Amino acid sequence: MFKFFNTVASISVTELQEKMKGTIHLLDVRTPNEYRSGHISKAKNVPLNKVDGYKGSLTEEVYVICQSGMRSKKAAKILQKKGYSVVNIRGGMSQWTGQIRGGK
């Protein structure tokens, strides 16, 4: 799947809430402290500086979220280069209105 300019697909937090009714792979690329202060329950914390080492299934779509959408976009480009099908969450946690949980 080749795209010009290596653009990353993106969806809004509203679209993410719809997708969460099913099973999705959601990576939260914020720092561990930010993650502990509140995250989406299905999200796995893989900080941006460690995303290059992420090992997941290349056959499943990976959704990436951060605080505003900037770090997740960077993370999405890194993962895309590694062969993952990635979707960035626009607006990030700052626009998320669904439930969040604290801790790990």
Automatic annotation (TrEMBL):
Classification via Pfam families: Rhodanese (PF00581)
List, for all copies, the residue spans of the domain called Rhodanese.
Answer: 20-101
- SMART domains membership: RHOD (SM00450)
Family matches, as Gene3D superfamilies: Rhodanese-like domain
The portions of this protein that span the membrane are none
Residue runs in coiled coils = none
| InterPro entries the UniProt entry points to | GlpE_sulfurtransferase, Rhodanese-like_dom, Rhodanese-like_dom_sf
Q: What is this protein called?
A: Rhodanese domain-containing protein
